[in-house]
Amino acid sequence: MKLKPTSLLIAGALMGAAVLPVQADPMVDLLKVLRDKGTISAEDYSLLANAAKAKEEKVAAEKEEMVSIVKETEKKSSLVTLDSKGLNFQSADKSFTANIGGRIHADYGFISDDYFDRNVANVNEVGNASKFRRARLGMEGTMFTNWLYGVEVNFGSNSSTEFTDVIIGYQGFENTTIKLGRHKMPSGLEELTSSNRISTMERSNPTNTFALGRYNGLTVATKGSNWTATGGTWLGDGVSAGENSDKDSDYGYAGRATFAPIQEKDSIVHLGLSYNHIKYEDTFSSDSLANNNGRLRARPNNNFFDERPVQVIYQGTESADTYGLEAATIQGPFSLQAEYFKRELNRKEFKDADVDGWYALATYTLTGETRGYRDGVMRTISPKNAVGKGGFGAWELVARYDELDVWDSSAAQEGLLVHSGSTNNNFNNLRGTKSEIWTIGVNWYVNDNIRFMANYVDADIKSDAANNAEGDIKAFLLRGQVAF
Amino acid sequence: MKLKPTSLLIAGALMGAAVLPVQADPMVDLLKVLRDKGTISAEDYSLLANAAKAKEEKVAAEKEEMVSIVKETEKKSSLVTLDSKGLNFQSADKSFTANIGGRIHADYGFISDDYFDRNVANVNEVGNASKFRRARLGMEGTMFTNWLYGVEVNFGSNSSTEFTDVIIGYQGFENTTIKLGRHKMPSGLEELTSSNRISTMERSNPTNTFALGRYNGLTVATKGSNWTATGGTWLGDGVSAGENSDKDSDYGYAGRATFAPIQEKDSIVHLGLSYNHIKYEDTFSSDSLANNNGRLRARPNNNFFDERPVQVIYQGTESADTYGLEAATIQGPFSLQAEYFKRELNRKEFKDADVDGWYALATYTLTGETRGYRDGVMRTISPKNAVGKGGFGAWELVARYDELDVWDSSAAQEGLLVHSGSTNNNFNNLRGTKSEIWTIGVNWYVNDNIRFMANYVDADIKSDAANNAEGDIKAFLLRGQVAF
Amino acid sequence: MKLKPTSLLIAGALMGAAVLPVQADPMVDLLKVLRDKGTISAEDYSLLANAAKAKEEKVAAEKEEMVSIVKETEKKSSLVTLDSKGLNFQSADKSFTANIGGRIHADYGFISDDYFDRNVANVNEVGNASKFRRARLGMEGTMFTNWLYGVEVNFGSNSSTEFTDVIIGYQGFENTTIKLGRHKMPSGLEELTSSNRISTMERSNPTNTFALGRYNGLTVATKGSNWTATGGTWLGDGVSAGENSDKDSDYGYAGRATFAPIQEKDSIVHLGLSYNHIKYEDTFSSDSLANNNGRLRARPNNNFFDERPVQVIYQGTESADTYGLEAATIQGPFSLQAEYFKRELNRKEFKDADVDGWYALATYTLTGETRGYRDGVMRTISPKNAVGKGGFGAWELVARYDELDVWDSSAAQEGLLVHSGSTNNNFNNLRGTKSEIWTIGVNWYVNDNIRFMANYVDADIKSDAANNAEGDIKAFLLRGQVAF
After folding, report:
1. Domain spans of chain C, in order of start
2. Which of the other chains make 3 or more beta carbon contacts under 8 angstroms with chain B?
3. Where is the signal peptide, in residue numbers (chains A, B, C) (predicted)?
4. Contact flag A238-B106 (C-beta cutoff 8 Å)
């Protein structure tokens, strides 16, 4: 651009350096002045000005190359992050991500068992014990942006299968996630809330008895800003050799819908409902209709028991329909949450059985934090002042009451088995039909990844069967938990 | 360098900035002109020129330091890559590498079983079921450039041991890899092709019966541009307490050689042969020569069965020699592949038994891709147009016929057991001696890491034993597979 | 700053570029000279000097921004390191760290068993076998600087539980580490030395019988420059259903203190002592006082045996007190190490039993390296000349003699069981009460991560019980080991 030197300089002086074009070079301006004043010849001006321009261009080119390398390097170096969200990797274009991590739930139980002592011979009364309720390692991620995968293995000592989630998924449709493999089927707010985030150490008996857990199947989950809808279907593992069976494994389908009419920062109202149908494997032998399809049983809300004090088996059960209702509200440091489940067991040759259960949970954060909520499930409490950052973490009080009643007096008139279910089928072992359980607890969230829990559980076992199998089991439980 | 100012400037003007020496500084050139013209004194010239040079040197030094830091940082940041080849790490000098990853094979089977129904009491007829055929996580890598290690754990539900490969290795000799630990012994093209890459959901019965799988031993593998040669030896796990045994575990040795006379981009011809010798543990009790050493059995080409419809036990087997022949060709989108196995069981006191099996596989890629091949094994198909990148992935049709015949009528005259092999040794369970199986399938390679498979398997079970144990098992199988 | 041009230039010329203030600009100096000489006007000088300063400021600002980005990037890129210390991650501020790795111990045993042959019917005599003594994968790290976590899973075939360490910990108190979860309780030098670093393939019988292994509990470990003190308490796993029991699981507490009076680079003297108390679960049935609490048994110092040739059960054992003494010295390439254990079993209704054992180990590094030692445990030998770096690695000779005597003749008068302990309780299986074992070995440390070991073990089994159960078991053992 051929500007008159004087005007260029005036412009520069008036507007400051920021306005000078990038190519502005004081050297060239000086050369112009010197040429105009005759101090240097036009030739010299030409040569020197070209040399100056060439040098500026070289400097600019080197700078651009450096900037480019630094940007590339910066992109490459942002592949790995390690923080309270865990160990995460992503490719430069973010089309591939991976996370490697796990969780540890170390439980310690001090139990006073006045049920098995009275009612059941040959089964241990649990006293004090330790247990790794969960100890998991896994890897998950995305590929080519839209595809998901995940494998998580559970080494905690209560698991018959060795993995939790094993999935291949697709998230290319807007707001929709499709998953294939072993993962939680849609059923129940307490069930779907991560075990790292549930308010008590164990989920309630109604949840553990009626909500679906993990199955190997297909789910399609879609959502909006304040609602979710999920449908799923699954197919069971098959039957191990030697059992008397006939063709197909268990299978089923399920659906859950949630809606949050109020969803603000410190005020949430959640409503949900779910339904599922299980078609049981047809394992009836010729003579008897006895099998475990219609077996309903529960622990006394602590996981140190393998034997269950509550257990009823409705023989001849072919399928089951389960309905669930959920309601919850979070108001600042308070929250209330309740669910109701009802199950109908459809039986062959015998009267169908209707059973149900419910729980109500209240929580209060002494340190003022609000429970998290997103996409239809509860999330964690993140301490405002973590231990080590000038604070005492977050402290939370919780209380829950749950009832499970698996007795249907009319259906129980026929085809009923109220026995141990243990391999020696000892009919002298008496089990209850109903549990009424109080759980009160204190949670200490040290930081975003670690919490300690203390629960006191008072489980009252009752029986509507003619076996007077009653008693109670009290437990004081402690947990150290880390998610990494 | 003392150049006459005018010549320097002329040189610069003629050749442009690139030719100017790095130290060329328009400022110094200007100073020279001004000095020559008398505008500034020689003293001023000295001082100003030195100052200019010092500034240029400082700028150059700062730039070099920055470049050095950026290069160091760039090296360090290239440690981690995450892409379709998985999550990989390497040290700056590449002497250490590591990979963390795994695979998921989620299978769903819909099975019509007309064999066990007719012939075998007390064994379940499999119907519809789901199964994690493989769910693996592992870590492997190199150390100090020449040393290898790897541990991979399999959580899929068909595995009695919990790991797949567990190795320490050395690759310091040119083109040679030595491995110690549990890994595949050299035997069979279909066997050595990764389960992520085999063309059908299950390998053929001859491969599963006669090829060696993974053992804990030592292999030495060497190769050239179109050939491979591998030798191995292994030692078994030992005998668990309580079984009647005498000293040594199984052991054996094996060798495999391959040659690709034609090995071009779209045209491959592969030839291979293998041999192995197994010396069985001497577990004979005093009276009987019955043990499982001479047990030959097979599934109906689908992994949902634990009980095998084909099973023969040649008692008194001390050792076995197995020969394998392989031939394959890949021509653009087509491929043909076949193997033949023959095994001789060497028996104590009874006549030796000769049995064999073979398969022939044909594949055709509708979307035109070519099957991969390298170092004597088949590799994957990489879709030209992956889903999500404007394409439908790669689609492949496959068909395989395999025959397994474990009946040697002459050897079978003596020391033969055609029974269930289940722990209660029920001789009323009849098994076949021969399988003839058609498998046809469609594979959909979504992208480099994910494929879906559908197989239809028609397994015809026949018997040359005097037990008329015949029938067939048809299965429709689906698989979702991800390698990460 | 208004300096007279001449003085500025003189200053610059005298002191060189380094002394020029950063803002010094030869261009501005030239402009001053030209202005002073009248070649350019004061106006022109103003404009040009401002333009030159503005340009310098812009260049400086760009440079600072680049430096800042490069430093950020450099920090971020130092997240990942992969070297002989393994695969390590850390956050930019180092408050989060993580390590993913594992180990493989691949063992091969060639065993000559002259004990079980003579004394025990129906138990296999082990001959030659392979075994993955350890095959582990795990992840551990720190969070928010002071918190620790770790999960490691063991897939080697000798483990009844599936994990090794599973911990949550805190290291915020100076020089103190608190751990909760499953990890080694404080007891024994050989026990606490990592299996990657012990001098022989198996720890001695006294260590394996008397030292504590891993339990689920709490430890507090503190240390100084040459001493350590650790206390711990634990609670057992509970009792599985079906066993006759009464309330509480095993629990116990333990302490260990070490002191290194001499701790120089090539000369170490280590002293240590430990104590632990185990309160056994009260599993006595009404009639008999027989249970496994007082069972003391040992292998012949090789892990290929599940059945133990040494075994005594003192019935009615309620608790046990164990005392341990440790002494070791490292002098350049030599080292000597010895431990003595004594255990008192406190019995209900029967006389208490006192048993003991000891070992003495000598090592010598042919290639001159010194054994490592830190914080009260032995550490590895790091080869001076690793294989591949111009050397043959490090070569070490080791020899150990250990004695275990679980016979207390006076206590053995009553409530004694010297039987197999196998489930069929066959009293015709005779076991010894004493082992005297020589282990000699050669270790080849290829590099910092890989070693090979060869051991020859001569185990003499004797019996002070009236059963003459004597014999010996010789074994030649090989191990390939990698830590990654």
Report:
1. 5-76, 79-483
2. A, C
3. 1-24
4. no
